[in-house]
Design a protein that fits this description.
1 helix, 3 strands, 3-stranded parallel sheet, mainly beta
Length: 70
């Protein structure tokens, strides 16, 4: 699945999600509220994307994040 845009709050009700792989997609940015609902996320993979910046405030919501692959 290739996509270039993600809607606001796509994971709001997936609070048990621990791993999110967005690798190998032409994403350029993540919306401000992208991480809402991902409080239990442990691993985030955004390698092989065109994402250049993730706002610090958004990452602060990921209290359990142990590994970021970019």
């Amino acid at each position: 699945l290739d996509f270039t845009k993600i809607d606001k709050n796509p994971f709001e009700k997936l609070n048990k999600l621990e791993k999110l792989v967005l690798s190998s997609n032409p994403l350029k940015f993540l919306p401000k509220d992208f991480f809402n609902g991902l409080e239990n996320l442990v691993r985030l993979e955004i390698n092989q994307t065109e994402i250049e910046q993730i706002e610090k405030l958004d990452l602060s919501k990921l209290k359990n994040l142990k590994k970021l692959i970019k």
